[in-house]
Protein backbone atom coordinates (compact mmCIF):
# COMPACT_ATOMS: atom_id res chain seq x y z
CA UNK A 1 0.00 0.00 0.00
CA UNK A 2 1.13 3.64 -0.43
CA UNK A 3 2.32 5.74 2.52
CA UNK A 4 -0.95 7.65 2.98
CA UNK A 5 -3.03 4.49 2.96
CA UNK A 6 -0.60 2.80 5.32
CA UNK A 7 -0.90 5.64 7.81
CA UNK A 8 -4.69 5.59 7.74
CA UNK A 9 -4.81 1.83 8.24
CA UNK A 10 -2.29 1.92 11.07
CA UNK A 11 -3.98 4.84 12.78
CA UNK A 12 -7.40 3.22 12.51
CA UNK A 13 -6.12 0.00 14.03
CA UNK A 14 -4.83 2.01 17.01
CA UNK A 15 -7.93 4.14 17.30
CA UNK A 16 -10.27 1.18 17.07
CA UNK A 17 -9.30 0.12 20.57
CA UNK A 18 -11.06 3.24 21.84
CA UNK A 19 -14.43 1.96 20.67
CA UNK A 20 -14.35 -0.51 23.55
CA UNK A 21 -12.58 1.71 26.07
CA UNK A 22 -14.50 4.93 25.30
CA UNK A 23 -11.33 7.02 25.10
CA UNK A 24 -11.72 10.73 24.46
CA UNK A 25 -8.82 11.51 22.14
CA UNK A 26 -8.14 14.76 24.04
CA UNK A 27 -5.69 17.38 22.93
CA UNK A 28 -3.36 16.70 25.90
CA UNK A 29 -0.95 13.82 25.70
CA UNK A 30 0.20 11.66 28.61
CA UNK A 31 3.66 10.30 29.32
CA UNK A 32 4.00 6.96 31.07
CA UNK A 33 5.89 6.75 34.35
CA UNK A 34 7.63 3.53 33.40
CA UNK A 35 10.97 3.19 31.69
CA UNK A 36 11.28 1.14 28.53
CA UNK A 37 14.05 0.41 26.05
CA UNK A 38 14.01 0.65 22.28
CA UNK A 39 15.32 -2.00 19.87
CA UNK A 40 18.85 -0.66 20.28
CA UNK A 41 18.78 -0.95 24.06
CA UNK A 42 18.42 2.79 24.72
CA UNK A 43 16.16 3.90 27.57
CA UNK A 44 12.86 5.47 26.41
CA UNK A 45 9.54 6.74 27.76
CA UNK A 46 6.21 6.34 26.01
CA UNK A 47 3.39 8.74 25.21
CA UNK A 48 -0.18 8.14 24.11
CA UNK A 49 -0.48 9.12 20.42
CA UNK A 50 -3.97 7.80 19.80
CA UNK A 51 -5.38 9.81 16.84
CA UNK A 52 -8.22 12.25 17.38
CA UNK A 53 -11.50 10.69 16.31
CA UNK A 54 -12.93 13.84 14.69
CA UNK A 55 -9.81 14.46 12.62
CA UNK A 56 -9.05 10.93 11.52
CA UNK A 57 -12.58 9.93 10.63
CA UNK A 58 -12.80 12.96 8.33
CA UNK A 59 -9.53 11.88 6.74
CA UNK A 60 -11.09 8.51 5.96
CA UNK A 61 -13.46 10.33 3.61
CA UNK A 62 -10.70 11.30 1.22
CA UNK A 63 -8.99 8.02 0.34
CA UNK A 64 -10.21 8.51 -3.23
CA UNK A 65 -13.47 6.61 -3.66
CA UNK A 66 -15.91 7.47 -6.40
CA UNK A 67 -19.58 6.52 -6.18
CA UNK A 68 -19.02 3.36 -8.23
CA UNK A 69 -15.95 2.17 -6.30
CA UNK A 70 -17.71 2.89 -3.00
CA UNK A 71 -20.76 0.84 -3.99
CA UNK A 72 -18.50 -1.97 -5.22
CA UNK A 73 -16.73 -2.08 -1.86
CA UNK A 74 -20.06 -2.48 -0.05
CA UNK A 75 -21.03 -5.26 -2.46
CA UNK A 76 -17.75 -7.02 -1.65
CA UNK A 77 -18.94 -7.44 1.93
CA UNK A 78 -22.28 -8.84 0.78
CA UNK A 79 -20.63 -11.39 -1.51
CA UNK A 80 -18.18 -12.41 1.21
CA UNK A 81 -21.21 -12.98 3.46
CA UNK A 82 -22.63 -15.44 0.92
CA UNK A 83 -25.31 -13.19 -0.59
CA UNK A 84 -26.87 -14.39 -3.84
CA UNK A 85 -29.15 -11.38 -4.25
CA UNK A 86 -28.11 -7.77 -3.70
CA UNK A 87 -30.41 -4.81 -4.23
CA UNK A 88 -29.40 -1.17 -4.58
CA UNK A 89 -32.31 1.01 -3.49
CA UNK A 90 -32.75 4.77 -3.65
CA UNK A 91 -35.23 7.15 -2.01
CA UNK A 92 -34.36 10.59 -3.27
CA UNK A 93 -37.61 12.34 -2.47
CA UNK A 94 -37.65 15.04 0.15
CA UNK A 95 -34.90 16.73 2.07
CA UNK A 96 -33.24 13.58 3.49
CA UNK A 97 -32.48 11.27 0.54
CA UNK A 98 -31.16 7.78 1.25
CA UNK A 99 -29.43 4.94 -0.56
CA UNK A 100 -29.66 1.34 0.60
CA UNK A 101 -27.74 -1.83 -0.23
CA UNK A 102 -29.78 -4.86 0.82
CA UNK A 103 -28.49 -8.43 0.66
CA UNK A 104 -29.61 -11.93 1.62
CA UNK A 105 -26.26 -13.00 3.08
CA UNK A 106 -25.84 -14.68 6.43
CA UNK A 107 -26.16 -11.46 8.45
CA UNK A 108 -24.38 -10.64 11.72
CA UNK A 109 -24.94 -10.97 15.43
CA UNK A 110 -24.95 -7.80 17.54
CA UNK A 111 -21.33 -8.42 18.56
CA UNK A 112 -20.25 -9.04 14.96
CA UNK A 113 -22.00 -5.84 13.89
CA UNK A 114 -20.08 -3.74 16.39
CA UNK A 115 -16.84 -5.31 15.19
CA UNK A 116 -17.80 -4.67 11.54
CA UNK A 117 -18.43 -0.98 12.35
CA UNK A 118 -14.93 -0.68 13.86
CA UNK A 119 -12.44 1.09 11.53
CA UNK A 120 -9.59 -1.31 10.82
CA UNK A 121 -11.58 -4.31 12.04
CA UNK A 122 -9.29 -6.75 10.23
CA UNK A 123 -5.51 -6.82 10.10
CA UNK A 124 -4.47 -6.97 6.40
CA UNK A 125 -1.62 -9.30 7.39
CA UNK A 126 -3.98 -11.97 8.72
CA UNK A 127 -4.98 -14.93 6.55
CA UNK A 128 -8.37 -14.78 4.86
CA UNK A 129 -10.64 -17.34 3.26
CA UNK A 130 -10.12 -17.68 -0.49
CA UNK A 131 -13.53 -16.12 -1.18
CA UNK A 132 -13.04 -13.16 1.19
CA UNK A 133 -13.06 -9.97 -0.90
CA UNK A 134 -12.04 -7.76 2.04
CA UNK A 135 -8.57 -6.42 2.70
CA UNK A 136 -8.09 -3.83 5.48
CA UNK A 137 -11.37 -3.97 7.41
CA UNK A 138 -11.96 -0.41 6.25
CA UNK A 139 -14.18 -0.83 3.19
CA UNK A 140 -17.62 -0.51 4.80
CA UNK A 141 -16.64 2.60 6.71
CA UNK A 142 -14.29 4.41 4.33
CA UNK A 143 -16.45 3.71 1.26
CA UNK A 144 -19.59 4.92 3.03
CA UNK A 145 -17.98 7.99 4.59
CA UNK A 146 -16.70 9.01 1.16
CA UNK A 147 -20.30 9.52 0.06
CA UNK A 148 -22.31 10.32 3.19
CA UNK A 149 -22.07 11.55 6.79
CA UNK A 150 -24.46 9.04 8.33
CA UNK A 151 -23.94 5.30 7.92
CA UNK A 152 -26.45 2.85 9.34
CA UNK A 153 -26.19 -0.92 9.19
CA UNK A 154 -29.21 -3.08 10.04
CA UNK A 155 -28.61 -6.82 10.07
CA UNK A 156 -30.54 -9.95 10.90
CA UNK A 157 -29.02 -13.31 11.82
CA UNK A 158 -31.20 -16.29 12.67
CA UNK A 159 -34.12 -13.91 12.94
CA UNK A 160 -32.52 -11.56 15.49
CA UNK A 161 -32.25 -7.93 14.44
CA UNK A 162 -29.40 -5.54 15.28
CA UNK A 163 -28.49 -2.08 14.07
CA UNK A 164 -25.80 0.58 14.49
CA UNK A 165 -25.03 4.06 13.12
CA UNK A 166 -21.92 6.12 12.60
CA UNK A 167 -22.88 9.82 12.55
CA UNK A 168 -19.92 11.99 11.60
CA UNK A 169 -21.56 15.10 13.00
CA UNK A 170 -21.76 13.41 16.40
CA UNK A 171 -18.10 12.33 16.16
CA UNK A 172 -17.11 15.89 15.23
CA UNK A 173 -18.96 17.20 18.29
CA UNK A 174 -17.78 14.61 20.84
CA UNK A 175 -14.42 13.62 19.37
CA UNK A 176 -15.16 10.06 20.49
CA UNK A 177 -15.06 6.75 18.61
CA UNK A 178 -18.62 5.86 19.47
CA UNK A 179 -21.47 4.41 17.45
CA UNK A 180 -25.19 4.44 18.18
CA UNK A 181 -26.78 1.04 18.78
CA UNK A 182 -30.44 0.71 17.76
CA UNK A 183 -33.22 -1.06 19.59
CA UNK A 184 -36.06 0.20 17.38
CA UNK A 185 -36.02 0.11 13.58
CA UNK A 186 -39.25 1.70 12.39
CA UNK A 187 -37.38 4.79 11.19
CA UNK A 188 -34.87 2.85 9.11
CA UNK A 189 -35.93 2.68 5.44
CA UNK A 190 -36.19 -0.79 3.85
CA UNK A 191 -35.44 -2.56 7.17
CA UNK A 192 -38.78 -4.40 6.88
CA UNK A 193 -37.48 -6.10 3.74
CA UNK A 194 -34.72 -8.03 5.51
CA UNK A 195 -35.07 -11.82 5.32
CA UNK A 196 -34.37 -14.14 8.25
CA UNK A 197 -30.70 -13.54 7.41
CA UNK A 198 -29.30 -10.53 5.63
CA UNK A 199 -27.81 -7.06 5.93
CA UNK A 200 -28.94 -3.59 4.94
CA UNK A 201 -26.46 -0.71 4.58
CA UNK A 202 -28.06 2.75 4.54
CA UNK A 203 -26.37 5.98 3.43
CA UNK A 204 -27.96 9.27 4.53
CA UNK A 205 -26.87 12.88 4.76
CA UNK A 206 -25.40 12.45 1.26
CA UNK A 207 -23.23 15.55 1.26
CA UNK A 208 -20.60 14.17 -1.15
CA UNK A 209 -22.89 12.11 -3.36
CA UNK A 210 -25.39 14.97 -3.51
CA UNK A 211 -22.80 17.25 -5.11
CA UNK A 212 -23.08 19.83 -2.34
CA UNK A 213 -26.47 20.96 -3.68
CA UNK A 214 -28.50 22.54 -0.86
CA UNK A 215 -32.04 23.89 -0.94
CA UNK A 216 -32.85 22.22 -4.27
CA UNK A 217 -34.19 18.73 -3.67
CA UNK A 218 -34.91 18.08 -7.35
CA UNK A 219 -31.44 19.19 -8.44
CA UNK A 220 -29.76 17.07 -5.78
CA UNK A 221 -31.87 14.03 -6.74
CA UNK A 222 -30.94 14.45 -10.40
CA UNK A 223 -27.23 14.65 -9.48
CA UNK A 224 -27.44 11.48 -7.37
CA UNK A 225 -29.38 9.66 -10.09
CA UNK A 226 -26.63 10.45 -12.61
CA UNK A 227 -23.98 9.09 -10.25
CA UNK A 228 -25.95 5.87 -9.66
CA UNK A 229 -26.56 5.44 -13.39
CA UNK A 230 -22.84 5.85 -14.05
CA UNK A 231 -22.06 3.30 -11.33
CA UNK A 232 -24.42 0.73 -12.84
CA UNK A 233 -22.12 -0.33 -15.67
CA UNK A 234 -19.14 -0.43 -13.29
CA UNK A 235 -20.93 -2.93 -11.06
CA UNK A 236 -22.09 -5.04 -14.03
CA UNK A 237 -18.46 -5.27 -15.12
CA UNK A 238 -16.68 -5.66 -11.77
CA UNK A 239 -18.88 -8.55 -10.61
CA UNK A 240 -19.67 -10.14 -13.98
CA UNK A 241 -18.00 -13.45 -13.15
CA UNK A 242 -20.15 -13.91 -10.03
CA UNK A 243 -23.21 -13.07 -12.15
CA UNK A 244 -22.27 -15.42 -15.03
CA UNK A 245 -20.22 -18.29 -13.68
CA UNK A 246 -21.58 -19.00 -10.18
CA UNK A 247 -24.30 -21.55 -9.48
CA UNK A 248 -26.63 -20.11 -8.43
CA UNK A 249 -25.52 -16.86 -10.05
CA UNK A 250 -25.29 -13.61 -8.15
CA UNK A 251 -28.23 -11.32 -8.88
CA UNK A 252 -27.77 -7.55 -8.80
CA UNK A 253 -30.87 -5.35 -8.77
CA UNK A 254 -31.22 -1.59 -9.04
CA UNK A 255 -34.57 -0.23 -7.87
CA UNK A 256 -36.39 -3.37 -8.97
CA UNK A 257 -34.52 -3.79 -12.26
CA UNK A 258 -32.22 -6.78 -12.67
CA UNK A 259 -28.76 -5.90 -14.01
CA UNK A 260 -27.12 -8.01 -16.68
CA UNK A 261 -23.38 -8.77 -16.52
CA UNK A 262 -20.88 -7.22 -18.91
CA UNK A 263 -18.26 -9.79 -19.95
CA UNK A 264 -15.29 -7.80 -21.33
CA UNK A 265 -14.03 -10.91 -23.16
CA UNK A 266 -17.17 -11.45 -25.23
CA UNK A 267 -17.33 -15.13 -24.33
CA UNK A 268 -20.99 -15.29 -25.36
CA UNK A 269 -20.14 -14.37 -28.96
CA UNK A 270 -19.27 -17.23 -31.29
CA UNK A 271 -16.47 -15.27 -32.98
CA UNK A 272 -14.35 -14.72 -29.87
CA UNK A 273 -11.01 -16.51 -29.48
CA UNK A 274 -9.72 -17.84 -26.15
CA UNK A 275 -6.29 -19.29 -25.40
CA UNK A 276 -5.66 -21.90 -22.73
CA UNK A 277 -5.10 -20.78 -19.15
CA UNK A 278 -1.43 -20.22 -18.29
CA UNK A 279 -0.08 -20.16 -14.72
CA UNK A 280 2.86 -18.51 -12.98
CA UNK A 281 3.77 -19.93 -9.57
CA UNK A 282 4.98 -17.41 -6.99
CA UNK A 283 5.79 -17.46 -3.29
CA UNK A 284 2.25 -16.70 -2.08
CA UNK A 285 0.14 -18.25 -4.78
CA UNK A 286 -0.33 -18.76 -8.51
CA UNK A 287 -1.11 -16.03 -11.00
CA UNK A 288 -3.24 -17.23 -13.91
CA UNK A 289 -3.41 -15.65 -17.35
CA UNK A 290 -5.84 -16.20 -20.20
CA UNK A 291 -5.77 -14.33 -23.49
CA UNK A 292 -8.90 -13.42 -25.45
CA UNK A 293 -9.52 -11.81 -28.81
CA UNK A 294 -12.91 -10.19 -29.37
CA UNK A 295 -14.81 -10.92 -32.58
CA UNK A 296 -14.76 -8.29 -35.31
CA UNK A 297 -17.44 -5.65 -34.74
CA UNK A 298 -19.29 -6.69 -37.90
CA UNK A 299 -19.83 -10.14 -36.38
CA UNK A 300 -22.11 -8.82 -33.60
CA UNK A 301 -25.00 -6.39 -33.43
CA UNK A 302 -24.27 -2.70 -32.95
CA UNK A 303 -26.07 -2.62 -29.59
CA UNK A 304 -24.05 -5.59 -28.29
CA UNK A 305 -20.81 -4.06 -29.57
CA UNK A 306 -21.46 -0.71 -27.90
CA UNK A 307 -22.46 -2.35 -24.61
CA UNK A 308 -19.28 -4.44 -24.69
CA UNK A 309 -17.08 -1.39 -25.31
CA UNK A 310 -18.78 0.85 -22.77
CA UNK A 311 -18.89 4.65 -22.80
CA UNK A 312 -15.18 5.03 -23.65
CA UNK A 313 -15.26 2.57 -26.57
CA UNK A 314 -13.12 -0.41 -27.43
CA UNK A 315 -9.96 1.55 -28.10
CA UNK A 316 -9.72 2.50 -24.43
CA UNK A 317 -10.96 -0.83 -23.03
CA UNK A 318 -8.27 -3.06 -24.53
CA UNK A 319 -5.51 -4.58 -22.40
CA UNK A 320 -5.28 -6.34 -19.05
CA UNK A 321 -8.20 -7.12 -16.76
CA UNK A 322 -6.87 -7.99 -13.33
CA UNK A 323 -9.09 -9.93 -10.92
CA UNK A 324 -8.60 -10.55 -7.22
CA UNK A 325 -10.72 -13.47 -6.14
CA UNK A 326 -12.65 -13.17 -9.43
CA UNK A 327 -13.54 -9.58 -8.56
CA UNK A 328 -12.29 -7.07 -11.16
CA UNK A 329 -9.82 -4.52 -9.78
CA UNK A 330 -8.05 -3.19 -12.91
CA UNK A 331 -10.10 -2.55 -16.04
CA UNK A 332 -8.67 -2.36 -19.54
CA UNK A 333 -5.10 -1.10 -19.24
CA UNK A 334 -1.80 -2.16 -20.80
CA UNK A 335 -0.10 -1.10 -17.54
CA UNK A 336 2.70 0.60 -19.44
CA UNK A 337 3.57 -2.54 -21.45
CA UNK A 338 2.01 -1.47 -24.76
CA UNK A 339 0.22 1.39 -26.47
CA UNK A 340 -3.48 1.52 -27.23
CA UNK A 341 -3.84 1.16 -31.00
CA UNK A 342 -6.68 0.47 -33.37
CA UNK A 343 -5.20 -2.86 -34.48
CA UNK A 344 -4.85 -4.16 -30.91
CA UNK A 345 -8.20 -2.97 -29.58
CA UNK A 346 -9.63 -6.51 -29.73
CA UNK A 347 -7.01 -7.75 -27.25
CA UNK A 348 -8.03 -8.68 -23.72
CA UNK A 349 -5.88 -10.53 -21.16
CA UNK A 350 -7.49 -11.85 -17.98
CA UNK A 351 -5.17 -11.97 -14.97
CA UNK A 352 -6.33 -13.81 -11.83
CA UNK A 353 -4.60 -13.37 -8.48
CA UNK A 354 -5.60 -14.84 -5.09
CA UNK A 355 -6.08 -12.64 -2.01
CA UNK A 356 -2.90 -14.17 -0.55
CA UNK A 357 -0.85 -11.97 -2.89
CA UNK A 358 -2.19 -8.57 -1.82
CA UNK A 359 1.10 -7.33 -0.40
CA UNK A 360 3.05 -8.39 -3.50
CA UNK A 361 0.61 -6.55 -5.77
CA UNK A 362 0.21 -3.60 -3.36
CA UNK A 363 -3.60 -3.71 -3.56
CA UNK A 364 -5.00 -0.40 -2.28
CA UNK A 365 -7.90 0.18 0.11
CA UNK A 366 -10.38 0.81 -2.72
CA UNK A 367 -9.29 -2.38 -4.51
CA UNK A 368 -9.05 -0.26 -7.64
CA UNK A 369 -5.30 -0.26 -8.33
CA UNK A 370 -2.26 -2.50 -8.01
CA UNK A 371 1.43 -2.69 -8.92
CA UNK A 372 2.96 -5.52 -10.92
CA UNK A 373 5.63 -7.70 -9.31
CA UNK A 374 8.72 -7.83 -11.61
CA UNK A 375 8.29 -11.54 -12.40
CA UNK A 376 4.66 -10.99 -13.40
CA UNK A 377 5.51 -7.93 -15.49
CA UNK A 378 7.93 -9.96 -17.62
CA UNK A 379 5.37 -12.69 -18.25
CA UNK A 380 2.73 -10.11 -19.16
CA UNK A 381 5.09 -8.41 -21.59
CA UNK A 382 5.46 -11.68 -23.51
CA UNK A 383 1.69 -12.17 -23.58
CA UNK A 384 1.18 -8.69 -25.02
CA UNK A 385 3.52 -9.38 -27.93
CA UNK A 386 1.81 -12.65 -28.80
CA UNK A 387 -1.80 -11.57 -28.39
CA UNK A 388 -1.42 -8.33 -30.32
CA UNK A 389 -0.54 -10.39 -33.40
CA UNK A 390 -3.81 -12.33 -33.06
CA UNK A 391 -5.85 -9.13 -32.87
CA UNK A 392 -4.11 -7.67 -35.90
CA UNK A 393 -4.77 -10.84 -37.89
CA UNK A 394 -8.49 -10.58 -37.07
CA UNK A 395 -8.62 -7.16 -38.71
CA UNK A 396 -6.20 -8.00 -41.51
CA UNK A 397 -8.16 -11.11 -42.52
CA UNK A 398 -11.20 -8.94 -43.10
CA UNK A 399 -9.05 -6.34 -44.80
CA UNK A 400 -7.66 -9.01 -47.12
CA UNK A 401 -10.94 -9.00 -49.03
CA UNK A 402 -10.09 -5.49 -50.13
CA UNK A 403 -7.12 -6.73 -52.15
CA UNK A 404 -8.48 -10.13 -53.16
CA UNK A 405 -8.85 -10.18 -56.93
CA UNK A 406 -11.67 -12.71 -56.69
CA UNK A 407 -13.96 -9.93 -55.48
CA UNK A 408 -12.86 -7.34 -58.08
CA UNK A 409 -12.16 -4.50 -55.62
CA UNK A 410 -12.92 -0.96 -56.68
CA UNK A 411 -9.95 0.31 -54.65
CA UNK A 412 -6.40 -0.94 -55.00
CA UNK A 413 -4.14 -1.11 -51.96
CA UNK A 414 -0.60 -0.24 -53.03
CA UNK A 415 2.45 -0.35 -50.76
CA UNK A 416 5.23 1.93 -51.99
CA UNK A 417 8.32 3.28 -50.22
CA UNK A 418 6.96 2.29 -46.84
CA UNK A 419 3.64 4.06 -47.46
CA UNK A 420 0.21 2.53 -48.11
CA UNK A 421 -1.80 4.14 -50.91
CA UNK A 422 -5.43 3.52 -51.84
CA UNK A 423 -6.28 4.22 -55.47
CA UNK A 424 -9.46 3.58 -57.53
CA UNK A 425 -8.89 0.80 -60.09
CA UNK A 426 -9.71 2.10 -63.59
CA UNK A 427 -9.95 -1.50 -64.83
CA UNK A 428 -12.78 -2.35 -62.43
CA UNK A 429 -15.80 -3.44 -64.49
CA UNK A 430 -18.07 -0.62 -63.36
CA UNK A 431 -15.45 2.01 -64.27
CA UNK A 432 -14.10 0.43 -67.45
CA UNK A 433 -17.64 -0.32 -68.70
CA UNK A 434 -18.70 3.28 -68.19
CA UNK A 435 -15.50 4.61 -69.76
CA UNK A 436 -15.99 2.43 -72.85
CA UNK A 437 -19.39 4.01 -73.46
CA UNK A 438 -17.99 7.55 -73.31
CA UNK A 439 -16.91 9.46 -76.43
CA UNK A 440 -13.18 9.09 -77.07
CA UNK A 441 -12.49 12.73 -76.16
CA UNK A 442 -14.03 12.22 -72.68
CA UNK A 443 -12.32 8.95 -71.82
CA UNK A 444 -9.02 10.65 -70.88
CA UNK A 445 -10.87 13.21 -68.80
CA UNK A 446 -12.73 10.41 -67.00
CA UNK A 447 -9.40 8.72 -66.25
CA UNK A 448 -8.18 12.04 -64.77
CA UNK A 449 -11.31 12.25 -62.58
CA UNK A 450 -10.54 8.77 -61.22
CA UNK A 451 -6.98 9.92 -60.51
CA UNK A 452 -8.28 13.00 -58.65
CA UNK A 453 -10.41 10.75 -56.42
CA UNK A 454 -7.37 8.66 -55.52
CA UNK A 455 -5.25 11.74 -54.79
CA UNK A 456 -7.81 13.34 -52.49
CA UNK A 457 -8.57 10.47 -50.08
CA UNK A 458 -9.11 12.27 -46.71
CA UNK A 459 -6.35 10.35 -44.94
CA UNK A 460 -6.06 12.63 -41.90
CA UNK A 461 -9.81 12.60 -41.23
CA UNK A 462 -10.02 8.83 -41.68
CA UNK A 463 -7.09 8.31 -39.33
CA UNK A 464 -8.71 10.47 -36.64
CA UNK A 465 -12.07 8.73 -37.01
CA UNK A 466 -10.57 5.23 -36.93
CA UNK A 467 -8.42 6.08 -33.93
CA UNK A 468 -11.49 7.28 -32.05
CA UNK A 469 -14.15 4.73 -32.92
CA UNK A 470 -13.59 2.66 -36.05
CA UNK A 471 -16.93 0.87 -35.82
CA UNK A 472 -18.74 4.18 -36.43
CA UNK A 473 -17.00 4.72 -39.79
CA UNK A 474 -19.31 3.39 -42.49
CA UNK A 475 -19.81 3.57 -46.24
CA UNK A 476 -22.73 5.58 -47.57
CA UNK A 477 -26.00 3.74 -48.16
CA UNK A 478 -26.62 2.36 -51.66
CA UNK A 479 -29.99 2.46 -53.41
CA UNK A 480 -31.25 0.03 -56.05
CA UNK A 481 -29.89 2.08 -58.97
CA UNK A 482 -26.35 2.05 -57.54
CA UNK A 483 -26.55 -1.69 -56.91
CA UNK A 484 -27.86 -2.23 -60.45
CA UNK A 485 -25.03 -0.31 -62.10
CA UNK A 486 -22.36 -2.16 -60.12
CA UNK A 487 -24.02 -5.55 -60.61
CA UNK A 488 -24.55 -5.06 -64.32
CA UNK A 489 -20.85 -4.45 -64.95
CA UNK A 490 -19.67 -7.30 -62.73
CA UNK A 491 -22.24 -9.84 -63.94
CA UNK A 492 -21.08 -9.29 -67.52
CA UNK A 493 -17.48 -10.13 -66.58
CA UNK A 494 -18.55 -13.29 -64.75
CA UNK A 495 -20.83 -14.41 -67.57
CA UNK A 496 -17.96 -14.01 -70.02
CA UNK A 497 -16.11 -16.47 -67.78
CA UNK A 498 -18.95 -18.97 -68.29
CA UNK A 499 -20.34 -18.69 -64.73
CA UNK A 500 -23.87 -19.94 -63.98
CA UNK A 501 -26.42 -17.92 -61.99
CA UNK A 502 -25.60 -19.77 -58.77
CA UNK A 503 -21.88 -19.27 -59.34
CA UNK A 504 -22.42 -15.57 -60.00
CA UNK A 505 -24.40 -15.20 -56.79
CA UNK A 506 -21.70 -17.03 -54.83
CA UNK A 507 -18.99 -14.84 -56.34
CA UNK A 508 -20.75 -11.53 -55.72
CA UNK A 509 -22.14 -12.20 -52.23
CA UNK A 510 -18.78 -11.42 -50.46
CA UNK A 511 -18.58 -7.98 -52.14
CA UNK A 512 -19.22 -5.64 -49.23
CA UNK A 513 -21.80 -3.45 -50.97
CA UNK A 514 -23.78 -6.49 -52.07
CA UNK A 515 -23.38 -8.39 -48.81
CA UNK A 516 -24.81 -5.68 -46.56
CA UNK A 517 -27.75 -5.17 -48.96
CA UNK A 518 -28.07 -8.82 -50.00
CA UNK A 519 -31.86 -9.11 -50.19
CA UNK A 520 -32.05 -6.23 -52.66
CA UNK A 521 -28.75 -7.07 -54.39
CA UNK A 522 -29.55 -10.73 -55.03
CA UNK A 523 -32.90 -9.80 -56.60
CA UNK A 524 -31.17 -7.25 -58.84
CA UNK A 525 -28.48 -9.77 -59.87
CA UNK A 526 -31.09 -12.40 -60.76
CA UNK A 527 -33.00 -9.84 -62.79
CA UNK A 528 -29.88 -8.71 -64.65
CA UNK A 529 -28.87 -12.26 -65.52
CA UNK A 530 -32.27 -12.75 -67.17
CA UNK A 531 -32.20 -9.47 -69.11
CA UNK A 532 -31.38 -9.79 -72.76
CA UNK A 533 -29.13 -6.74 -72.87
CA UNK A 534 -26.65 -8.46 -70.55
CA UNK A 535 -25.86 -10.93 -73.30
CA UNK A 536 -25.35 -8.31 -76.03
Automatic annotation (TrEMBL):
Q: Name one Pfam family in it.
A: HATPase_c_3
Which molecular function GO terms apply here? Answer: ATP binding
- Taxonomically, the superkingdom here is Bacteria
Which Gene3D superfamilies does this one have? Histidine kinase-like ATPase, C-terminal domain
Do you know which InterPro entries this protein is assigned to? Answer: HATPase_C_sf (IPR036890)
Keywords for this entry? ATP-binding, Nucleotide-binding
Q: What is this protein called?
A: ATP-binding protein
Query: What organism does the UniProt record list as the source?
Result: Sphingomonas tagetis
Amino acid sequence: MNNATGFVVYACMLASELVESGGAGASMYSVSHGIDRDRHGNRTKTADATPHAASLIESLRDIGYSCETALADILDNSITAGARRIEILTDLSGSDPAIGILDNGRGMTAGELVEAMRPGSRNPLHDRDAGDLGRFGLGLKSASFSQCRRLTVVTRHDGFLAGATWDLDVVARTNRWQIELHEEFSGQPWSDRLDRDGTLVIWRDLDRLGGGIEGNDAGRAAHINRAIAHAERHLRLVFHRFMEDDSPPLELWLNGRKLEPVDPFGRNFAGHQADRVDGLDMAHGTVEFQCFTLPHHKSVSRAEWEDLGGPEGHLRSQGFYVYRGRRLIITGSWLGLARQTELTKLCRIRVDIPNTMDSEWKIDVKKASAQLPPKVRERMRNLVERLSLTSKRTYQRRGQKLVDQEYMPLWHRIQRDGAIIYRPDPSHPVLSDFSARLPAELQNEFANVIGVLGSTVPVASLHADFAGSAEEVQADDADEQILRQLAKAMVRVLQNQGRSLDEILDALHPVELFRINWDMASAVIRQIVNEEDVYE
